[in-house]
Amino acid sequence: MLDLLARNWWLLAIRGVAAILFGLACFLWPGVTLLVLVSFFGAYALIDGISLLFALIRGDATARRHGWSVGIMGLLGVAAGLVTFFAPGLTAISLALVVGVWAVILGAFQVAAAVALRREIQGEFWMALAGLAAILFGVYIIVLPGDGLISLLWLLGSWAIVFGVLTLGLAFRLRGHPRAAASPMSA
């Protein structure tokens, strides 16, 4: 594994730079970045739906056995893709609401687990506090989905920049490794 990483250190460097650029785009152009992410989802949903319908029409054996479910999933995929392209704002807000509801439910279960475990573990307070933070975050996104989307983009951007810097650090550390000498990009 070390040989492979050392010879291809430059691929890690490209990955790190791409992550940093994506992270900066989240901060500098949040609206455009969100639109691109939503568009990628729309393209995926549309292509996935069309491919499922094509498999059903073509008569693929697996698709025929599950015809109704494959047909419904295909139609839902096409519908989700079309809605995304014709109403990207609605898709973005829907995504924010799903994340918000998920965070509230996750937080509630975490608080409940902390209460249930209070006699069995120490530090359950931290588990309950993390659950409460998830609930508050979810409520924030549900109440202000537009601001919540920007917050999510900033979190994603922050993660991408940190990931990119750390990946670049690894790439340049590997570049100096003796096994990197076999790489055509080492010179």
Kindly describe this structure.
This protein is mainly alpha-helical. It has one domain. Helices cover 86% and strands 0% of the residues. The protein has 8 helices and no strands. The protein starts with a helix and ends in a 12-residue tail after the last helix. The model has no long low-confidence stretch (mean pLDDT 87).
Could you give a quick summary of the protein structure above?
With 187 residues, the protein is an all-alpha fold. 86% of the residues lie in helices and 0% in strands.
Strand count, sense and closure of the main sheet? Answer: none
H/I helix tally: 8
User: Which percent range describes the beta-strand content?
Assistant: under 5%
* Range of helix content: over 70%
Spell out the helices and strands N to C. Answer: HHHHHHHH
Count of discrete domains: 1
Low-confidence blocks of residues: none
Average residue-wise pLDDT = 87
Q: What structural class results from the helix and strand content?
A: mainly alpha
Gross morphology is extended
Report the count of strand segments.
0
Oligomer: single chain
Span of the ends, CA to CA: 21 Å
For the CA atoms, what is the radius of gyration?
23 Å
